[in-house]
From TrEMBL:
InterPro entries per the UniProt record, alphabetical: Gal_mutarotase_sf_dom, Glyco_hydro/deAcase_b/a-brl, Glyco_hydro_38_C, Glyco_hydro_38_cen, Glyco_hydro_38_cen_sf, Glyco_hydro_38_N, Glyco_hydro_38_N_sf, Glyco_hydro_57/38_cen_sf
Record-annotated membrane-spanning stretches: 7-26
Cofactor(s) the protein needs: Zn(2+)
Catalytic activity field: N(4)-{beta-D-GlcNAc-(1->2)-alpha-D-Man-(1->3)-[alpha-D-Man-(1->3)-[alpha-D-Man-(1->6)]-alpha-D-Man-(1->6)]-beta-D-Man-(1->4)-beta-D-GlcNAc-(1->4)-beta-D-GlcNAc}-L-asparaginyl-[protein] + 2 H2O = 2 alpha-D-mannopyranose + an N(4)-{beta-D-GlcNAc-(1->2)-alpha-D-Man-(1->3)-[alpha-D-Man-(1->6)]-beta-D-Man-(1->4)-beta-D-GlcNAc-(1->4)-beta-D-GlcNAc}-L-asparaginyl-[protein]
Pathway terms, separated by semicolons: Protein modification; protein glycosylation
Domain of life according to the entry: Eukaryota
Keyword match Transmembrane: yes
Organism: Electrophorus electricus (Electric eel)
EC numbers on record: 3.2.1.114
Membrane topology, from the record: Single-pass type II membrane protein
Family: Belongs to the glycosyl hydrolase 38 family.
GO cellular component terms, semicolon-separated: Golgi membrane
This protein's name: mannosyl-oligosaccharide 1,3-1,6-alpha-mannosidase
GO terms of molecular function: carbohydrate binding; mannosyl-oligosaccharide 1,3-1,6-alpha-mannosidase activity; metal ion binding
Organismal lineage: Eukaryota, Metazoa, Chordata, Craniata, Vertebrata
């Protein structure tokens, strides 16, 4: 047997108590130590200081603890003798029996029924009418010829009599794009613009029932709702009843689709939909996403699962738009790559032109369309850059102006199959003042009245909502309204994604996949904490319901903390937040909200008390834990108990790291059995420099893998890299620091690691010597500091001998894997893709997977090579409206795991690919670390048996996305019900399932929970609809890749 099984904690339980009788270990992550604050920046921006101070505060807490440590060092020294006499050093041979009660033995083979392998092994057959985006990329030349007035398109012509039989129907959709933070903070935008838009909306829509408006950001809408009186609320409800106001999408924000994880995408959609249902009784039908920088099929899937019928997207590569426009395939059923039927289809409209502003929405010629943006009338604050201003519509000019506009509508209509044309009418933060409402609505109404009263024009023009448009479209094309059945529709089916977006020339938006990585990492950590708190909270409520204890549990207060946390997490999914594309002070505002968002953690503490403690010791119960980045627990003198919470649904063997104040430590289980521990120094400074050069090689399976670092500069052209764009100065240059690195090697029974410190990076490779999932992969941590640089981006490059050629794979939103092709016909920056949770390379024998704990941009520029941009420092704006560079870099710890798996799959060119089970579970471990809490409670008073609400692990392929208590109809507290959200992952069986350390099996998608559930109803993703079929109580069965939601009542 391979060494003894060594490590610290964890069986199948949700909780486990470990008693530390002295102490151990450090965490390998580094704090963001702001050693060299850039004073000028601090002076320039007071708000930055606030966030930095908060982070500094966390640091000070650490420092204070170090002082305490020094004070007690003497007493610890005295303890040393007795410890040494009492117990010898912990040796592996003494430990195996002590671990039995903590660790189930991992089976040698994972049990996988052959049916469970069929899904990933299915052969791909492309339907005749199917458009596969990988093929489109193959086919297009990506040239960029001048298309005339429609610069990125072509000349459009039509015959006058084309609409004689069937008139053109024009639906003009007024909209106002409200970013929850970008150039201003959420609150500042609300104060200066959003509240006025909404207030005027109530008045102006009531003035004329033909007027319409759509709204999509519930974060703003709910804030406004809380500030208006009952009369205004009634007026809003009336507008919704009449169909004048439509809530489109209904998410908390319009999320980014590249960096976001599906947990957070679902969470913010659910929060918005639940708010709408409670306050307005509204169920959104159509999704509206005009501004996210590229579009993901994951979002389409989630909309479909939530019960939406239609969606609209805008930011798609101009060459793809042009191609689809020539084919008239800008409207299609978006289908998931893995779906060989049609169950995931959702009707999607892709806007054809450059932008969602008025100049690019009425038709192909922005010079003309701008004249129909009446906010730009002469004398106003904005004008038309094409230098022909709009004219107020009068009886004198209406004929000429109507013909001009109709010409644009007709031309636009030629790009679509139906004779219905959609013309969005709005822009960022539009309709703020009453005058603007009048300008737009009055002038357009005159144009419509003219057109509609001239039958020879064969046009019917009107204001409409986005669902009005789809309703008409479905009607004229013979589809049913809900969209389950595409019937005789003329629309093709499309599969694949819309990354990487370019809006013009070689301006690819791949920079934001990495911009402000500190916050991308923070986002992921807080997602994990929120999920952990949500689950525990729901279980606690159930526990209280069953046993009535404790009676003083602050259920409502804790629920409000959770609600705040959900909303702040939701806000950060916005397409200028997690993307790293806001102004410095807006970034600080999000960061400050996130610090506040650590609030759900007390929920966990309260829950622990409730679940773990028996007897009347509540007053003595003091769970103490220190939250920092990373989260650590300090153990001080003598005797401490540590409660460990495993937030995932599988039994698990993982290492926890805890700061302790003496190296003389013993770790015992609650039953008093020893647990192996490793003590490692906390390194503050490097005392010795090594002259050896770095050489990292792993020689496990007759291959070598090299990790090194490279720099990208920015081009010398006029347009340079910024927060959005990546415009490098050619290929990367090798990172060669001026002074040799310091190399530190740590060896121990639990893990061994090599830490190499360069000027800009501290790079740690760690191997766990444990017979669990953690022992299967190399852990990589890069702490990056490029604050002193000028226009530089730093990347980690992993080079292997895997013959991957130009193929590689990146995930989308942690939900699915999208095959990629590196294409020489595209510029370097176009070959970077978002990597949310993993990227891999493979050939017929092996697969090399890089799992990531934060979203970053990744590429495979050469066969066998995988590259990840880790941080970017850019000294200029990239002309997308932000008006600044990215110079607020922080020291950022990026975490990864590298997994090499022998593979026996055959080559296939299917547009889908799946991770192995081991890779899935490793990713879950990486993103959901154990949560540890130190307590001063006498261990005798703690429940000695690990608490586990699950009698066994979930199947390996089933992930508990969330168990989220639903808000009560009134009062802001919890209801008796919770949303149970499960995801069955697709996995590839072509990998060895031998000795993976997995403590689970697969079960054909069946889940048996032993949770006591009194009601159980399958519902749509965001709880808007109940399933018509009511399966038997607790019989849960999921199809591969499926996400299912159940409304349950625990207890
Ligand atoms: Zn936006």
């Amino acid at each position: 047997m391979k060494i003894s099984r060594q490590f610290t904690v964890f069986g199948s339980a949700i909780f486990c108590v470990v008693v530390f009788s002295l102490y151990l270990m450090l965490d390998h992550l580094q704090l963001d130590r702001i050693k060299n604050p850039i004073n000028e920046e601090r002076l320039q921006n007071g708000q930055l200081v606030i966030l930095q101070d908060k982070i500094d505060h966390l640091e000070r807490l650490l420092a204070e603890n170090n002082k305490i440590i020094a004070n007690i060092r003497d007493s610890v020294t005295n303890l040393r003798k007795s410890v040494n006499n009492d117990k010898g050093p912990l040796e592996a041979k003494n430990l195996s029996q002590g671990l039995v009660d903590l660790l189930p033995f991992a089976p040698i083979w994972v049990l996988i029924p052959s049916e469970d392998c069929q899904f990933s092994a299915q052969t791909y057959s492309k339907a005749a009418d199917e458009v596969q985006m990988l093929d489109v990329y193959d086919m297009l030349s990506f040239d960029n010829p001048d298309g005339g007035v429609w610069k990125q398109g072509f000349d459009i012509s039509y015959e006058e009599n084309e609409w004689d039989q069937e008139p053109l129907q024009v639906v003009v959709v007024p909209h106002s794009h409200n970013d929850p933070g970008w150039l201003k903070t959420f609150d500042d935008y609300y104060r200066d613009q959003t509240q006025h838009i909404l207030n005027n909306m109530v008045v102006k829509l009531h003035e004329d029932e033909r007027r319409k408006m759509i709204w999509s950001e519930i974060s703003y809408f709910s804030k406004w709702w809380n500030n208006i009186d009952i009369q205004k609320k009634d007026a809003v409800k009336k507008l919704i009843e009449r169909g004048q106001l439509e809530m489109a999408t209904g998410g908390w924000v319009m999320p980014d689709e590249a960096n976001t994880h599906y947990f957070a995408l679902i969470d913010q959609l659910l929060e918005g939909h639940q708010w709408l249902e409670r306050n307005l009784g509204v169920k959104p039908k159509t999704a509206w996403a005009v501004d996210p920088f590229g579009h993901s099929p994951t979002q389409a899937y989630l909309f479909k699962q939530a019960g939406l019928s239609n969606m609209l997207i805008q930011r798609v590569h101009y060459s793809i738009k042009k191609h689809f426009a020539t084919q008239k395939t800008l409207e299609f059923f978006w289908r998931q790559n893995w779906d060989q039927e049609s169950s995931t289809d959702i009707l999607c409209h892709m806007m054809p032109f450059y932008s969602y502003d008025v100049p690019h929405t009425c038709g192909p010629d922005p010079k003309i369309c701008c004249q129909f943006d009446f906010k730009r009338l002469p004398g106003g604050r904005i004008s038309c850059p094409w230098r022909i201003p709009p004219q107020v519509i009068t009886s004198d000019n209406v004929q000429q102006r109507a013909h001009m506009l109709l010409d644009q509508y007709r031309k636009k209509s030629k790009l679509f199959m139906s004779k219905v044309v959609l013309a969005p009418l709005g822009d960022d933060f539009r309709y703020t003042d009453a005058q603007e409402w009048d300008q737009q609505f009055n002038n357009y109404q005159k144009l419509f009245d003219y057109m509609n009263s001239h039958p020879e024009l064969n046009v019917q023009a009107q204001f409409g909502t986005i669902s009005d448009y789809f309703e008409i479209l479905r009607k004229v094309t013979g589809m049913d309204q809900a969209g389950m059945n595409k019937g005789v529709s003329p629309f093709p089916v499309l599969s694949g994604d819309f990354f990487t977006y370019a809006d013009r020339d070689d301006h690819y938006w791949s920079g934001y996949f990495t911009s402000r990585p500190f916050y991308k990492r923070m986002d992921r950590m807080l997602e994990s904490h929120l999920r952990a708190a949500e689950i525990l909270y729901s279980l606690t409520l159930a526990n209280i319901k069953m046993f009535g204890k404790p009676s003083n549990y602050p259920a409502v207060e804790n629920y409000k903390l959770l609600t705040e946390a959900r909303r702040n997490l939701g806000l950060f999914q916005h397409h200028d937040a997690i993307t790293g594309t806001g102004k410095d002070w807006v970034v600080v505002d999000y960061g400050t909200r996130y610090i506040a968002f650590l609030l759900p953690l007390p929920v966990v503490v309260h829950c622990c008390r409730t679940i773990l403690v028996s007897g009347d010791i509540e007053n003595e119960w003091q769970l103490r834990f220190l939250v920092s980045f990373p989260m650590n627990v300090f153990i001080m003198p003598s005797f401490r108990s540590v409660v460990v919470y495993n937030p995932i649904e599988q039994a698990r063997s993982s290492v926890i790291s805890i700061y302790v104040t003496t190296p003389h430590i013993r770790v015992l289980t609650a039953q008093g059995r020893p647990v192996i521990a490793q003590i490692t120094a906390v390194w503050e400074h490097f005392t010795q420099a090594s002259t050896e050069t770095l050489k990292l090689k792993e020689n496990g399976l007759k291959h070598s893998i090299k990790v090194d670092f490279v720099w990208y500069g920015t081009t010398s052209n006029k347009d340079k890299s910024g927060a959005y764009l990546f415009l490098p100065d050619g290929e990367a240059k090798k990172y060669s620091p001026s002074r040799p690195p310091v190399i530190r090697v740590t060896k121990g029974p639990v893990f061994s690691e090599v830490t190499t410190t360069f000027t800009h990076i501290t790079h740690t490779l760690r191997l766990y010597n444990i017979q669990g999932v953690d022992g299967q992969a190399v852990e990589i941590c890069n702490t990056v500091d490029i604050r002193g640089e000028f226009n530089q981006e730093i990347a980690m490059r992993i080079t292997s001998d895997i013959n991957s050629m130009n193929r590689f794979f990146t995930d989308l939103n942690g939900f699915q894997v999208q095959p990629r092709r590196t294409m020489s016909k595209l510029p370097l920056q176009a070959n970077f893709y978002p990597m949310t949770s993993m990227a891999y390379l493979e050939d017929s024998n092996r697969r090399l997977t890089l799992l990531t704990a934060q979203s970053l941009g990744a590429a495979s520029l050469k066969s066998g090579q995988l590259e990840v941009i880790m941080d970017r420092r850019l000294n200029q704006d990239d002309n997308r409206g932000l008006g600044q560079g990215v110079l607020d870099n922080k020291i950022t710890a990026n975490s990864f795991r590298l997994l090499l798996e022998p593979r026996n799959s055959r080559e296939n060119n299917a547009p889908f690919s799946y991770p192995s089970l081991l890779s899935h579970i490793s990713c879950t471990y990486l993103n959901h670390p154990l949560i540890q809490m130190a307590t001063s409670v006498d261990p005798a008073l703690l429940t000695p048996v690990p608490h586990s609400p699950l009698t066994s692990s979930f199947p390996c392929d089933i992930h508990l996305v969330n168990l989220r208590t639903i808000q009560s109809q009134v009062g802001g507290g919890p209801s008796e019900q919770a949303a149970l959200i499960l995801h069955r992952k697709g996995f590839d069986c072509g990998f060895s399932s031998r000795n993976t350390g997995l403590l689970c099996s697969t079960t054909r998608g069946k889940v048996l929970t032993k949770l006591k559930v009194s009601t159980f109803t399958p519902v749509s993703l965001s709880l808007m609809y109940e399933s018509s079929s009511t399966p038997k109580h607790q019989e849960i069965s999921l199809k591969p890749m499926e996400i299912c939601t159940y409304r349950i009542q625990l207890g």
